[in-house]
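Limitations
The structure tokens in this dataset are predictions for the assembled complex, not deposited experimental models. Users should treat interface geometry with appropriate caution, especially where small molecules or nucleic acid strands are included. An illustrative entry is reproduced here so readers can see what is and is not provided.
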Amino acid sequence: MTPAELSQAVQAAVSAAVEAGELAVAVPEHVTVERPKNRDHGDYATNVALQLAKPAGMPPRAVAELLAARLRETTGVAKVDIAGPGFLNITLDAAAQGLLARTVVEAGQAYGRNEALKGLKINLEFVSANPTGPIHIGGVRWAAVGDSLARVLRATGADVTTEYYLNDAGVQITKFARSLQAVANGKPVPEDGYVGEYIGDIAKAITDGVPGVLDLPEDEQLQVFRAEGLKLMVAEIKRSMEEFGVHFDTWFSEKSLHESGAVEQAIDRLREQGHVFDQDGAIWLRTTDFGDDKDRVLIKADGETTYFAADAAYYLSKRDRGSEVSVYMLGADHHGYVNRLKAIAACAGDDMDRNIEVRIGQFVKMLRDGQEVRLSKRAGNIITIDDVVDWIGVDAARYMLARSSTDSTITIDIDLVTSQSNENPVFYVQYAHTRMCGVARKAAELGVDKGAAEDFKPELLATQWESDMLGALGEFPRVIATAGELREPHRVARYLEDLAGKYHRLYENCMFLPKGDEELTDTHRARLWLVEATRTVLANGLTLLGVSAPERM
RNA sequence: GCGCUCAUAGCUCAACGGAUAGAGCACUUGACUACGGAUCAAGAGGUUGCAGGUUCGAAUCCUGCUGAGCGCACCA
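Predicted assembly:
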């Protein structure tokens, strides 16, 4: 019996009580059934009686009594206790619980997928770092979290488009081009330019790739460095993202918004909605109508469009391309943008509480020799995505960055992670997976297997360790659904750590294979189903995080 | 000055308003002639920054305070 099925059973118990006239409430659309932390509280617990007590005008425990009586009649339910203020503690019979192992194995890679967000069209934008340098550690966090979130959302049935917004127009690119040009000509980079080895590398690639570029007039030369530098830098970013296991469906060019007239069209559309006004020679969007602390300029008095105007056009582009929910993942230094971005959606006539989500994530702090390493894209000693991968590898990097809530600043001690990578939780989880594969290898060696599905005896999975394991396996679909709904992929990582721990304990306490001259028993076979089910969930979960599930380490 | 975010064990971090706040690491003590010991068991470690409030129930929600990070352009 899965938690979802149990939840329906509880709901049915409420319905039955209502129909019998014993309970005067509206039947809740969804009943929460959860694994209690304390196993003395049964396999599952529900607080539904506490929640219905007030509307029913009855004491919580009286409501609980009504429901408990009906639940005890439910197939697969072994015991129902009423505890504390009115919790219902439900214990399943071993067979009903054990059946889950076969369910999981038979579902395979599909186990855990659900339809919590079925059909929802989501545009998920993340990283979007300026193409004026390599991706630095902050961007790496969004790459890990954003890509995992995309995978999680897809597992909940959402139709997700991942997108990288390339700021390929504007003065930063010009500064970048001037820096390349200066270095190529053996001159010092301008005061406000970009420095770092990569500037020299790209400059050299351009002078090598475009013979005679240095003989061109200065203006033409700059154009070459701008165009070629941008191309090379974007290619470099794409390469590092792909190597990190992160794929973007769309690389969206800011410049294209300006060149196609999309920015002007966007302003016209916002004007039609009545939120655009002229003042002091500039054209403004009245974002203060929707919670922004000041109105924003779209077109400056000198006729130039602002970056904000491009933001507006970009949002409308996402909308025009079918996005129902546009999710922006921004760094903490962009929190001031939340209100103005949401106001764009509202000014366009959209629901700013549904059609747009701006998620702010905190920074990653890097320590080396006990000192914080300051991150500056313009400084030479930046920590890039390639540095991180070199030090700790893609798996550990992705896992470490994705296992924490983006609300928390996280601190990564480079010395610790590089010198003692065994302490990394990802190894704990991956090791559990290799152990399960080891069991399968050993079974093959012994020439035994878990047997046919119809011979599986779920009631033999009856020890506390097996029960714990089965309970955890049953949670997986809900973990994914919650992670998707809350946009918090770190929940998957935490779940896997718990699952791995339960497996390690199961391993210590239950033999899966016969030893010595023993015969393979039905208990062994049932446990082999459980091991295979656990391996399936662990592998599925690691895939959602973009982390490999190794057979050997 | 105004605003946003954060504050949980020695460290790094969890905890859809639920029961005794949990993991990993580090520390102490144990466990390998069995499926991989990169493991497990036990122990120790907390006034969830402070003070109020709402609630049957608060780390979680509200108010105030303290501390930290960040942001407040006709820049991009």
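Some entries come with short summary sentences. For this one: The CA atoms of residues 512 and 527 of chain A lie 6 Å apart.
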